[in-house]
Amino acid sequence: MHNVSSHRQVNGVSLQRIDAHHWWRDAVIYQVYVRSFLDSTGDGIGDLAGVRAGLPYLKKLGVDGIWLSPFYPSPQADHGYDVADYRGVDPLFGDLAEFDLLVAAARRLGVKVLLDIVPNHCSSEHPWFREALAAGPGSPARARFHFADGRGPDGSEPPNNWHAMFGGPAWSRVTEPDGRPGQWYLHMFTPEQPDWNWRTPEVPAEFDRILRFWLDRGADGFRIDVAAGLFKHPDLPDSPDPEADARTRDSVNPLAWNQPEVHGVWRHWRSVCEEYTARDGRERLLVGEVSVPTAREHARYVRPDELHQAFFFDLLSAPWSADAFRKVVSEAMEDIAGTGSTVTWVLNNHDQVRTVTRYGEPATEGSGLGTARARAAALLMLALPGAAYIYQGEELGLPEVVDLPDDVLTDPIFRRTGSRARIRDGCRVPLPWSGQASPFGFTSGAEGAKPWLPQPDYFAEYATDRALADTRSFWHLYRDGLQLRAALPQLGEGTLRWLDAPPGVLAFARGDGLVCAVNFGTSPTPAPVSGTPLLSSGPCPAGVLPGSTSAWWLGDL
């Protein structure tokens, strides 16, 4: 397939775009957290029909595709990341016929559909795990998981000292079919999520069939949960820092994550995607949730025959500082882009405190600092060469809901630890669409229908209908940025050159002539380019870059 060029007018400027064959290299994907996007049935839980109804909104925003959080049959112990059946749709969200309608509607609009696949663990209600419990020690059914005898004279101690990422031991003991206390099984998240044993051939063979099932139904690719997981050290030895995962809520234990064998899985999955692409010319995408210590280690996952993309979380975790942002961007461009892939930038997702709140801390309430910084960061991310993922609600500037009462919290982290410090419910509150009071158009149920998590009254200020009507809103900032990205040539292939800038200011030029500058301070500084910006995150007079503001220019620097 050859490149096709076209011309567009954006903000009065004529721009030429070269449409590359590899659509994913500069794609902007919108993460849909299905249960919180839009409810079509009135039960207070978002569903696939709601996603289908929202597709025109997302097309208008300008995204290239959507990533759907897990909608498979599940007991919902971890909101679908505990999968009981990888080839179905949970009745909460619809059925396979509704999925087919969603894919068809997205195809008509030119929107790609990525599914969230969970290969590290399943649900304790999965038929294979229930079979393993019934089969007993030493059985082939148990070999699909990590079952082991306990330590101590009566086997009452876990096989090793590992702790789960969501708190507590990473092992649970089972009662054997004869009623006696028996073996232990490994779960790096919750007891309801037993880890698969990828060293048993049946497991990779099953996931091969699962991939093909969804590709045959029209999926454009997969977001891979815990992509640095799957394999554990074959000896399951003690960890020198067993609580590291729980303390950091990250994949830190080197014995449980990032084992070398995992790269063979991604090479095989890539070959499956290439097989489907060869059939019809439609590229399928693999994007991994890869949490590893360095950008150089990250780069190993996006080598030409492995994953197409892997989320680069260092930008998300960087403190609000010009030096910090420059460091992580430089490392990504050197190590990841050097593989021939493009960097996959993210500022937020369903596991993180929302950007407005994260960047506002420890500012005093009402200062607006978090809002200004989040707007500036959004333009920075959209200016960087590569792909970008936007978590739902970020385009509305939603803040984190920090005061949910204990009795509505559903995050297993809270259930296992009793601590609110790292809970994720606050970024998962259902979206506000319209109106002045909850449910803000989220649910189509009768008056008084309640969303699955309560929406605060102030969500009225962020409702989608208001955002679309206000040209100064977050929504218009994202939409304008996405329009410009779509008009600029070869964004995914772009280069980046740092420009001289005052302290606290980050400025770079791309190979296509775009210049982006961000003032991380609070005081105005001279802009790196004369003239009025093409786009800015806040009021930005010619020649000046206000504090907590980013701007784009077209120039020949």
From TrEMBL:
Transmembrane segments: none
InterPro entries linked: GH, GH13_cat_dom, O16G_dom_2
GO-annotated molecular function: hydrolase activity
Domain Glycosyl hydrolase family 13 catalytic positions: 31-424
Keyword entries, A-Z: Hydrolase
Domain of life: Bacteria
A family per Pfam: Alpha-amylase
Family from the record: Belongs to the glycosyl hydrolase 13 family.
Protein name: Glycoside hydrolase family 13 protein
